Every structure is written in structure tokens, then in C-alpha cells.
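BUG: 3D viewer hangs when loading the predicted structure for this chain

Environment: internal workstation, default settings.
Expected: structure renders.
Actual: progress bar stalls at 90%.

Input used:
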Amino acid sequence: MFSEELDRYSWEDTTRRIYAKTAADVEAALRKSHLDVEDFMALISPAAAPYLEQMAALSRRYTLQRFGKTMSLYIPLYITNSCTNFCVYCGFNHDNPFQRTILTEEEIVNELHAIKKLGNFENLLIVTGENPKDAGVDYLERALKLAHPLFSNLTIEVMPLKAEEYERLTHAGLHGVVCFQETYNRARYNVYHPKGMKSKFEWRLNGFDRMGQANVHKIGMGVLIGLEEWRTDVTMMAHHLRYLQHHYWQTKYSVNFPRMRPSEGHFQPNVVLEDRELAQLIFAFRIFDHDVDISISTRESAVFRDNILPLGVTSMSAGSKTEPGGYYTYPQALEQFHISDERTPAEVADAIRAKGYEPVWKDWDGWL
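C-alpha cells produced before the viewer hung:
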């Protein structure tokens, strides 16, 4: 399990080594065709800031070689904001006083049809709070079976599950799983996750192993930028990615770097990642791994998303609602977080075409 691997890496020592990187380290990394995590650390370090244009060009080149001029589009569907966790930064925090919603099967179907009217989406991300008692595996299985006839590619972002539960859901149409570790800082993790199942650091961390053991086709990873030193967190995620690729080599992987947005909890980020630094991180990750899918959500502004589009990103959300039932049933419900890019899917697709890229609504057919 990766929790044992993570024990090999000291948070403090990793931070120190990142900030000790020099221009020579950056230049050496940029000359390599295959990078290790030490090279990645150089590219995200402050020493790499003067090399941003060179990194952008290299990131663009690798992305074009692997993905061509395409941008995959997906849309999230929140089916419940019921949650038993107490995450201090999240609008779904169990202590927040608001009406909890668990969509019925009829309401889920209404949401699915409302999404189909927004565009040609075939990539659906089903999202829930963490409530295993009232919205557990049985509920997720029903939601997947309802969505499967309408969407060819189904991904979930839900509570960590057992390996056999992930495998069970693959038979209901599950294609991918997204899970944010939030932070790899074991010593500080429970400051942000004081109670609930999410407070169990190793259970969440080793969930990615369980996904691999269940032969999930695609695994999505991420840290929440705003909690701890971002350079150290993404370095730990780079170690994690390499570990997973070694152990579950038939699985595809994606990464996401969500920056904290305002929520009902009114948590103020401890760390601010500026646009230029986020761009540096995206370029560094593409140079580090040419094949990984790099996703960017509507948390980010339309201007930033349009400008970063040809430089390393390969998938985007569009038209997102982060409240359960937000497309049809309960359009005024509490959001998990406030989105920044409020354009319609058609407007996002037009912006992609304006950059000379093709919006891809559907990645594959289940019968192929």
C-alpha cells in the first residue's frame, strides 16, 4: 500500500530540497526526455520561474504529440450533499445548518436528461458527499445504472470504497474514479478533517490501491491547493502517481490541481497559488509525465482556462453545477463551492474551437 511508501518521504526534507533547487537543476531537467521526481521538484521550484516560456513550449509539444489538438469535455452531477464528515473547508460540512438532499431515482433521471439538453456530453462525473448509510454503494450502483444508457463514460467522485465495492460498480457501468487526497501532509491532515471517515488518513490514501486492485479503468488524483505548501503536496502526488503506474500499469491516470474557492464554511486558504504558479505546475507535470490526463475545472476563470488550453491541459468541465439537483430539480440549493467559469457548454466549446482545438464530448464506445 502507498501509505508504507509515503513513510519514506519526509515532508520537511522534501520542502527543503525543492527550495534548494538551482537554475542548473532546472536546465538539466529540461534537457531530459524522461524525468524522475527529483527533476519534477526542480521544475516546480522557485528557481524555475524564469524558465516559464520554455516550459510552456515543451509542455505544449508533448501534449500535441500525445493528445493532438483535442480537449475532452465532462460535466459533474451532484446527487447528494448529505455528508458525515466535518471538513473545515467544505460547504457540505456536517455541522453546516442547511437542508440536506439525496436525489431520488426520478430526480436523478430528470437531472440526467437536463444535462443531455445542455450539449453532447458523454463524459459524466457523479459526485456525492460521504454518507455510507443513506447514500452508500447500493445508491451509487442505482445511479450508475440510471446514467449508463445515456452516457458512455461514467466516473464517480465519492467516499473511498473497498476494492470489491469498486469492482461491483464497474459492472454497473463505472469507468473511472476521482479522489482528492486533499493533502499528503500526514501531520496536518486531521486539522482539516477532524471527524468522520475522511479523518482516517491511511484509509483515504490507500483507496487508490484498492481502485487499482479492482481494475478501475481510470484513476483521477488531486490535492486541494490552499491547505499546505503546494510544492511539497504535488511532489508527494508525483511519487504516488509513479507508484500507482508501477503497480497498476494497465490503468490510465489523470491529475487535477483545484485551488480553493469560497464555500459555506468560509475557510480562508493557508496558501495562495497565483495564476503564474498554477501554469508552472501544469507545465511541470506535463513535462514529467507525457501521458497523464491533466484536467481543469470550472473552479478556474474563463480567461485562465482559455489561455492554458493549448499548453498542457487535456480535459475540462463545462456548465458545472456543484449543488445536488442543480440542473433541474433544485437550482438554488447550496453549492459545495462557487464556480468561476460560468459559461455554457456551447460557449466553452466555441472557445476551444477558437483556439484551433476540437472539443471531444465522447471518448469511446462501450461496444468497441
